[in-house]
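ok so i was messing around last nite and threw this chain in just to see what happens. nothing serious, just curious
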Amino acid sequence: MNKQHKKRNTLKGNVLWGSVLGLIFTGILQAYFWTNEPPVPYTDVTVLAMTPAPKGYQIEVLFVKNTCTFKRLEVFGNNTGVLQYLTWFAQDGSPSKDYDRSKGQQYMNIVAETEHDAYDAIEIRTRHECAGVVVDKLFARIDINKADK
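result:
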């Protein structure tokens, strides 16, 4: 009877220690992923509208700006995977093209000039600096065929 009693206590002890070690290991992994997660300059990007304009398309977007510092925004026409720089102009009262918006909910209204060239999509790409790390990211990709309908 003593041998069975010892085996039960050993089994319970092993299960307990295994659970504790599993929790510690999971905590370490979570902490590692949280600290090594790439910076996110903005979230919740929603394209409100893309409408034809005299020389291209007017694009209206809502997004949430995070703490990163804005460096550059570029607009591209995408034709079967080939990107071409497009000239763009702010329509929302932004003081300049390199205007760093404040943290929080933002509205962006730009006109991308396509000069009557045919594109499959328009891509808006950004560069931010987040705690010394340069982050290049696709801000929005708008399929022109879907936007025209």
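not much to say yet. The chain has two domains: 1-37, 42-148.
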